[in-house]
Design brief:
Elements (H helix, E strand, L loop, with lengths): L1 H17 L5 H10 L7 H12 L16 E2 L4 E2 L27 H14 L5 H6 L11
Antiparallel strand pairs: 1-2
The structure holds 2-acetamido-2-deoxy-beta-D-glucopyranose.
Length: about 140
């Protein structure tokens, strides 16, 4: 019996560490911790909600050009991250590192993309976040 309990607990831990979905306020808290500016916070929350449903470990289906998008910000492997085990491309990272529950690497790369292209780099933002932004007043 005890063994089963331990097994279930371990399995739970494994599942949790494999896949993290933030709540809206949990995401706001984490983005603040990563230094995202308050003035654009609702845009970032909207973008993340449309791109990944606030989930850290998702990889998209192949895009038309065969590239894929990774993690919370759905960052593309054509320009920004390396699909190999060696860090590379413009963010000098592996794509796998974008799937971590620790969103530091993904955040740094997202800020770099934003600096170069603004929110227009993300279809999720372009198509859904120009008129109606999420309410984070209770976060
Ligand atoms: C990329 O990151 C590695 C460490 O992961 C570092 O040693 C290397 O100098 C970096 N390359 C560039 C071009 O920034």
């Amino acid at each position: 019996m005890l063994r089963i309990v331990v097994l279930v607990l371990l399995l739970n831990l494994f599942i949790q560490s494999e896949c993290k979905q933030f709540t809206r306020c949990g995401l706001v808290y984490e983005l603040r911790r990563q230094g995202f500016p308050e003035a654009k916070m609702r845009d970032w929350v909207c973008l993340v909600e449309k791109e990944s449903q606030r989930t850290t470990n998702i990889v998209s289906k192949p895009n038309k050009d065969g590239s894929r998008d990774y993690g919370l910000f759905q960052i593309n492997d054509k320009y920004w991250c390396s699909k190999t085990s060696t860090p590379g491309k413009d963010c000098n990272i592996t794509c796998r590192s974008l799937l971590s529950n620790d969103i530091t690497v993904a955040s740094t790369c997202a800020k770099k993309i934003f600096k170069r292209h603004g929110f227009r780099a993300w279809y999720g933002w372009l198509n859904h976040c120009q008129t109606n932004l999420p309410d984070i007043s209770n976060c």
